[in-house]
Amino acid sequence: MANAIFYPDKEGDIAPYTSNIVTRLTENGGALATALNVDPATVAQLGGYVTDIPTRIIDAEAAENAAKGVVAAKKTAIKSAKDTTLNQIQIWTRQANWTYEMGRALGVYIEHTPVDLANVKPKITGVEVHPDMVILDWVRGRMDGVAVYGSYDGTNFQLIDKDNKSPYEDTRSNRMQGAEWRFYKLRYQKNDKEVGLFSDIVNALVSIGGGPTPPKP
Predict the structure, then answer these.
(1) Which structural domains are found in the chain, ordered by start?
(2) What number is the average pLDDT over the span 149-176?
(3) Are 194 and 158 in contact (CB under 8 A)?
(4) pLDDT at 214
(5) How far apart are CA 173 and CA 193, in angstroms?
């Protein structure tokens, strides 16, 4: 029976694994490297991974944390703006001299034309990829929500979820370890029924656990 080849799955185990290989190849005057015909350039390349990979892991974690901080700051600013503005509007509308015309001038009151339910089309305004999810920002307008469709090839879509408040968070795990392309499109919902046209398709490259980047379909 052939022995199974082991290679670590956890990122933190790769550097120690590689370090052991380099140590064994170079000890005793490089006897094992000579026996296996391993040239010095290959040994040096493997040795470089021992220090490079931990550095890359630290850099990636720092970047991920920074990205989370930026997203959190955005959400905080948006919520603060909404709360402050709506609070002020409530104060203004209680004043005795408040008029409908004032509200129109401020944009508080707007006249809506009926929505064309046959042609209304969602708009995806942002796609953010995080280690544990993909975030889709979309415009709700006067609809009740959206039906979220997903695909792995950009052609064959299926309903994966429904959402009534932007942003939508796709927390599904990758189908296998490595990277995969995901494609999304949305369709509005009104009174629990899908209406109108599909949004334009957006895509995201999602990688959980590392691995090679596949070609885009």
Answers:
(1) 9-111 (no CATH), 124-208 (2.60.40.10)
(2) 94
(3) no
(4) 54
(5) 28
